[in-house]
Amino acid sequence: MSYLNPPEFVTKMIDAGETKAFMSTRDTVIRAYMAGAILALGAAFAVTVTVQTGQPLVGALLFPAGFCLLYLLGFDLLTGVFTLVPLALIDRRPGVTLRSVLRNWGLVFVGNFAGALTVAVMMAVIFTYGFSMEPNEIGQRIGSIGEGRTVGYAEHGAAGMLTLFVRAVLCNWMVSTGVVAAMMSTSVSGKVIAMWMPILIFFYMGFEHSIVNMYLFPSGLMLGGDFSIMDYLLWNEIPTVVGNLVGGLTFVGLTLYATHGRTAPARNRPAPRKADAPAEETRVKADA
């Protein structure tokens, strides 16, 4: 499996965050778009398998295929950059600023949403034969998911919002663990095995993932789900994004950095060079 010890892969986490902070607008959006689209296809696949077999565990076992593919291809999910990019700021990497972190998050959010929405439209066409008939059984299930995880929370008021938030925190605790797990190995098989386990947990447990929901809920609206765009935003997407940020950064990024970050190999830490910072800032401004 070619296992890397924690100080080594924590250094890789910081390096990855630094690279993403300085990535061009074009590359950031393209990679985020493809990540959102592939994850959405994985979610559609998992729901299809669940409906056809009647076994949610089978769908959950197969869902990580999409997640593994998108990370092996070097694409980015909002849940992942929530965890990685701030570490470059905390580690004081030259040129990394709060503005560059927020810029990355914003671009990845837009790219993920566009990719997931593209697949939502395509799958809605398939489930309804080009909107010429009522949704098939799979389309109906997606619509019911949207209802249950929006108005279903709203019916419980503050308790429902708390439940939604906690599910979102737990989700990115697992998802970001999967992102980091891929850095523990230098082999494809090792990366896939390490990613598969926490992603299986999050999906089967019904935790709230902001990018999966970017597919499920717009698709649900197109397939006749009895909820509104405002229900989706207020009773799912916005609280889920906040919970995903808290879960990934707090329980994965900061904890690993706090206990292993300062013991990372010194040779992997680039020495600060004052001349580099203005150049990096210029690059960020040019891309913004």
The geometry reads as globular
Helix count, per DSSP? 13
List low-confidence stretches.
266-288
Mean pLDDT: 92
Order of helices and strands: HHHHHHHHHHHHH
How many β-strands, per DSSP? 0
- Rg over CA atoms: 19 Å
Determine the structural class based on helices, strands and strand pairing. Answer: mainly alpha
**Roughly how much helix do the residues carry, as a percent range?**
over 70%
N- and C-termini, Cα separation = 40 Å
| Strand residue percentage | under 5%
Query: What is the makeup of the main sheet?
Result: none
Report on the architecture of this protein.
The model is unreliable at 266-288 (pLDDT under 50). The radius of gyration is 19 Å and the shape is globular. Helices cover 76% and strands 0% of the residues. By secondary structure, the protein is mainly alpha-helical. Helix 2 (25-53) crosses helix 6 (98-128) and helix 9 packs antiparallel against helix 10 (188-204). The longest helix has 32 residues, at 229-260. It is built from 13 helices and no strands. It has helices at residues 6-21, 25-53, 56-62, 64-72, 78-90, 98-128, 137-148, 151-154, 158-181, 188-204, 210-222, 229-260, 276-287.
